[in-house]
Amino acid sequence: MKHMNSEVKEERTSNKKRIDLFLVPIVLIAAFLNLFKIWTDEYANAYYTAAVKSMLQSFHNFFYASFDPGGYVTIDKPPVVFWIQTISAKIFGFHGWSVILPQALAGIGSVLLLYVLIKRTFGVWAGRFAALAMALTPIVPAVSRTNNIDSMLVFTLLLATWMLFRAVRTVKFGWVLAAFAMIGVAFNMKMLQAYMVLPAFYVFYVVATKITWKKKIAFLTTATALMLAVSVSWAVVVDSTSADKRPYMGSSQANSVLELAFGYNGINRLTGNTSVTGSSHKQPAQTEQQTASSETKQNSNSSADSSQSSNQRKSSFSQKMQAPGGGNQNGMFNTGNPGPFRLFQKGLSDQISWLLPFVIFSIVGLFAGVKFKGPYTAKQKESLFWLAWLLPVAVFFSIAGFFHQYYLIMLAPPIAAFAGAGAVALWSMYKQHNDWKSWLLPGGILTTAALQVYIMSPYVSSIGVAPIAGVGALGVILALVLAIRKQRENSLTNYLGAAAMVVLLAMPAYWAMTPIIYGGNSMLPSAGPDSSSGMGGPPSTATNSKQSGFNGMQPPGSSSGNSSSNNQMQPPSGSSNGGQMPGGSSNNGQMQPPSGSSNSGQMQMPGGSSNNSQMPNSFSSKSSSSKRKSGGMNAEVNQKLLNYLTKNNTGEKYLFATTDSTSAAPYIIKTGKPVMAMGGFSGSDPILTVSKLKAMIKKGEVKYFYLSGMGKGGQSDVITWIKENSKEIPSSKWQSTSSSAQQGPSGNGTLYEITLK
Fold first, then answer.
1. Are 93 and 110 in contact (CB under 8 A)?
2. How many CB atoms lie within 10 A of CB 433?
3. 697-711: per-residue pLDDT in tens?
4. What's the rounded Cα separation, in Å, for the pair 640 and 333?
5. pLDDT (tens digit, 9 = 90+) per residue, 151-161?
6. How many angstroms separate the most distant Cα atoms in the chain?
7. Which of 636, 670, 667 has its CA nearest to residue 654?
């Protein structure tokens, strides 16, 4: 206890010292990467931004995280992050940057927290390097520059880690409760993903706390119970509320938060079984590959230039872009194929794995000489914590059936922690000439440089040969020189070691800047020269690098008869589809490959293998604008359609109804008026029945319906009834003919009017 008390006193004394001047530029780098130009993203992820717009209008919408102002359906995630975004929008006004700001600040906060966590045990230089590695991990700023959840989730888990470390140092039970309660808060951000750190928390507390086993078990049991209570608190309240007094729980099949948490946002992520077919479940769930194939066939006749586009739509797209993690060379959304080396595959490695070889060598060095029965030093205990965070998360991403590239931010803290702690430890071993351990530093530098060359090689057409050759050559030279000079201690050796660290961080730093340089995609954030596409993989060669993700599709009411229509793939908004978007179970349209490489119009597969079938050049460049409307797949309304609906509204609650959220979101953002996404985010939620819709129409709640394609899942009967009992509105009254309209999904649709007495 005396030792523990002395540690607390030492910590308080160190806190009184002036700020670490070396930390200042690291924080400024993080601030630049996370904040610069976020004000150019007008809509951010439109699905979530529309929810914030709705949540600003009433406490009812705020509490339930309603997607639409009418309280019809919620978004597909818990509300905590969106509560924070709504508060930010309330303070600073409703803008794209004001909903992004909390995540950007969380990204900076994570850098600071990691510095604090590593510095105390491993030393100030370890803390500095860990903080810098965290700031320069490409996926960290890429996600933090959007209104997606993951940046805030990681910050919350790091805050819980700080509380846990303090609980161990002070042996105070209150800090244990606080740490696990914070994980419960994180659960209410992104559900089961928050629990990925639990192995680290349990292992560390058991190993590091100097109390009896009886107390350890009692404390952990109580803390876990509190965590579970906090985790399900909002879910219990919502699920206990009568369904007619709250919105439908988006992306669930039983209108239940708990089902959403443990099904759609839980085990289905591991299995990849994310397809839904409606409330009846009578049909077998389609795979994303099958659905994509069916959509391709349905869309073959929807283009203005039918001869060329039809051939494009009959390509082998479904064979090349299969379900996440399956069948093709790099999986859907470039998440690779499951296996032990998945994190080293293209599409994932450039987001998170730049320093992984160095981390592996660091782990070997930090655990060298450790005996299973102990005793363990403070460094070994905390290294065990970071290892217990790293391994389970890495295993999950290596075998998971479905995830997006930006989920990899969960690996950033342990990788950065080992990079910082390992750099100092391996340097110390190198200088001490400690037998085989002295070779860990040169070996780590050499293998890490080799991996970075491998990561960059598919991007040679975009970044050139020089940086690839430079990193490779310098890595080899510095590793060899350090190996040769092992027995010499002078300032030159110190400079060589510092130079090696700079070389290893140079290209991650560039990659981290790419969302600023090339533009980003707020719906599918990723880093790299193709960051604006949100797809990962080798870059596009479009003339304007600032592309908005998922161009090549049209918004409700826009004309398809423009000159680029032969390169567009029109998705139906009314069929179950393959591939998911952030915040939803399925993409309301087919995934479009980057339009790059020398094979114009062909899909260039990651790794350089070309798809032999012609693909639409859907990532067409967009004219520059002071505001980047990259709100997912549709980021702009059709003003003529909006004017018609507004003029002809006779007191209906909903401006119009459509199949899914991607068509509805821009109109909610633009007007703040209720727009009904009948099937939730993807259009597959079994929310509406024909009888319920009839009742809503008779009550005067809705009369206009914008439909495109076939109904999804449980909506098919509803869509059929609408078409059979409605009056079609001539397109000349509401359809835009402007070729300059921003492109988004659900083009070539039809506007219907229904009035029942």
1. no
2. 11
3. 999 999 999 998 655
4. 34
5. 999 999 999 99
6. 93
7. 667
